[in-house]
Amino acid sequence: MTVSPAISRAGTFRLGDRNVHRIGYGAMQLAGPGVFGPPRDRDQAVAVLRAAVAAGVDHIDTSDFYGPHVTNRIIREALSPYPGDLTIVTKLGAVRGDDGAWLPAQSPDDLKRGVEDNLRNLGIEAIDIANMRVMGDVHTPSEGSIATQFATLADLQRQGLIRHLGISNATATQVREAQAIAPLVCVQNMYNVAHREDDALVDSLAEQGVAYVPFFPLGGFSPLQSTTLSEVAETIGATPMQTALAWLLRRSPNILLIPGTSSLAHLTENLAVAEIDLPDDAMARLNGLVIAAG
Known about the structure:
There is one protein chain. Helix 2 packs across helix 3. The chain has 12 helices and 11 strands. It is an alpha/beta fold. It is globular. The strands form 3 sheets. A 7-stranded parallel beta sheet has the order 3-4-5-8-9-10-11.
């Protein structure tokens, strides 16, 4: 694999049993509008995945409920047989309704079926990392025991169907509950320069050597919009979205990025983030953005 100098500058962090580059790729946007149905341009989706891996991306985030089944099948078409150093992370615990709704699927049978779907559609014998997707408030963490669900995944791990476990959309209490059942290699929650409820959790996981993978690093369904972000971006000669990603890379060494795109041009912009050096004054301005965001 020829690794882009840009992606190498961001460094690496341990994810499961591998060190991966800190800039990965999120496959969610490869599905159709609303993460539902097929992409507008399947050939372009395949091309983006191949370009990402060719540039050194070795961490891809997906889920079989993206589409559903769409992104995993595109990943298989684009990348199988998979490079030996590629880590594919998926999520379990939800399905999509006929109308595109995000529905909980967290019974033992649901979770086992989710594992089987991922294995079949990705064309693999074991999942590298499976995140338990907590579905309390769908896109926002909410308290409630996840012991039964996580114990089910731990059992599937013992059966050899999953190599490593993570958790997504979880509170700090749920993270600790999961860790009491089986080791976690990553936590995937919503986190970005303007939404920082997980500040303490990020720091705690860094001390433990556990990866923190922010989803919606650019705001997700509500893209980040901030005068401060735009001003800092202009000062450092980057786009606002590149600046937001650069802030995450500097925020903590255990943060792994998975920005998603269906565009080759945007992929190039995302990978170039590793070359951005945020000066201290810019970092300080962005650290205050959470207050302005309210």
